[in-house]
């Protein structure tokens, strides 16, 4: 394999101290500032901004109508139409989670339960929203479609413990998902 030797170009004194790039950047910044003050900022109408630039006034204005179709937000657990848990505690989402934000403790379903045909259900299902990176891998790997990423980006809490969502909280924010659930399928 031949070795190609590349020589660096000789820079002038102005190029060596980046004077031209600094001046050019200053003029571009000033142009945007003047356009903003004149109310001619690019994208201001799309974001319904206050008129001074493209800054969205967050609590009053939200991104909800501007979110793309493929947006991935916070994960939540869902139930079926009859209020039954979809999760079978297979722990695939826990194993595939890159930041290890999911913790599942499986338990068995008692034999006297009408839904005893299913082997297990989650006793505890916790997701640490501080650690979650909203990658969507838990949703992709779930065989029962029990976990979904909802379009929610404003997750707040007053302390760290508020940011760990337990099973009840995850079902509360997840809601009901309509469709065939494999674990309740009689043919399975």
UniProtKB/TrEMBL annotation:
Its cofactor is [4Fe-4S] cluster. Binds 2 [4Fe-4S] clusters per subunit. InterPro entries: 4Fe4S_Fe-S-bd (IPR017896), 4Fe4S_Fe_S_CS (IPR017900), NADH_quinone_OxRdtase_chainI (IPR010226). It is found in: Cell membrane. [4Fe-4S] cluster 1 binds at residues 87, 90, 93, 142. Belongs to the complex I 23 kDa subunit family. This is NADH-quinone oxidoreductase subunit I. It comes from Luteolibacter luteus.
């Amino acid at each position: 394999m031949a070795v190609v030797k590349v020589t660096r170009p000789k820079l002038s004194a102005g190029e060596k101290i980046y004077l031209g790039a600094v001046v050019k950047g200053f003029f571009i910044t000033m142009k945007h500032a003047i356009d903003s003050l004149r109310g001619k900022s690019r994208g201001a109408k799309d974001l319904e901004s206050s008129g001074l630039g493209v800054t969205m006034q967050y609590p009053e204005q939200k991104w909800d109508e501007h979110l793309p179709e493929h947006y991935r937000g916070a994960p939540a657990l869902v139930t079926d139409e009859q209020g039954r848990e979809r999760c079978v505690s297979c722990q695939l989402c826990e194993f595939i989670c890159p930041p290890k934000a999911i913790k599942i403790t499986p338990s068995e379903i008692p034999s006297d339960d009408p839904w005893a045909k299913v082997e297990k259900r989650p006793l505890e299902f916790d997701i640490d929203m501080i650690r979650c990176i909203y990658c969507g891998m838990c949703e992709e790997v779930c065989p029962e479609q029990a976990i979904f990423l909802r379009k929610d980006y404003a997750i707040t809490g007053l302390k760290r413990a508020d940011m760990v969502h337990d099973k009840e909280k995850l079902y509360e924010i997840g809601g009901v998902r309509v469709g065939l659930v494999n674990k309740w399928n009689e043919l399975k």
